[in-house]
Design goal:
about 170 residues, alpha+beta, Nuclear Transport Factor 2, Chain: A, 2 domains, two-stranded antiparallel sheet, 4 helices, 6 strands, rod-shaped
């Protein structure tokens, strides 16, 4: 609730958000406005790409402001696709590491044995290095997936912080 009439509140709020690089995507002045804000590459509640919907209701000489923010579908989709791709690579790395570990232990070639063959014999040093590399990569990608999940949860839980901050500046 702000101590201004709706005719004063609406343009102030619109100007404040457009000054923060928000793009108006729809408006029904002076009762409702919708903005797009953030970037596909944003990783915080303030920088992630989102849609902010704001409704203004006159209450005497005051204006009641209600807003809601939601992450954009393309931000969510790129996150899901990236994590899915990383999960596939984790699976591939685990498969390669276990297959090459078994090959070096049993000397029975599996699917990935050809990677460590040199002129018909097994290069054990290369096999061990390849196993360490693929386990390391699987661990790194797993960490990235967990980090991305934490970013999504945090961003979703604080998604309204950008609009709240803008409202505080106006009041």
């Amino acid at each position: 609730m702000v101590n201004l009439k709706i005719e004063e509140t609406y343009p102030k709020f619109k100007d404040a958000l457009t000054a923060k690089d928000c793009k108006v995507i729809s408006e029904e002045a002076p009762n409702q406005i919708c903005f797009k804000q953030g970037s596909l590459w944003g990783i915080s509640p303030k920088t992630a790409k989102k849609t902010i919907g704001i409704q203004f209701e006159q209450d005497g000489d005051r204006t009641d402001i209600k807003f809601s923010s939601k992450l954009s579908s393309d931000w969510k989709n790129i996150t899901i696709v990236g994590c899915g791709f990383a999960a596939v690579l984790v699976g591939l790395c685990i498969w390669m590491a276990t297959d090459l570990s078994a090959f070096t232990a049993t000397n029975v070639p599996g699917f990935w044995g050809w990677l460590v063959m040199v002129k018909g014999s097994v290069d054990l040093a290369a096999a061990q290095a390849f196993v360490r590399l693929t386990w390391g990569l699987a661990g790194f990608l797993s960490f990235i997936i967990l980090l991305e999940a934490a970013i999504v949860v945090y961003t979703q839980s604080k998604i309204d912080s950008f609009a709240e901050e803008a409202l505080k500046e106006i009041c």
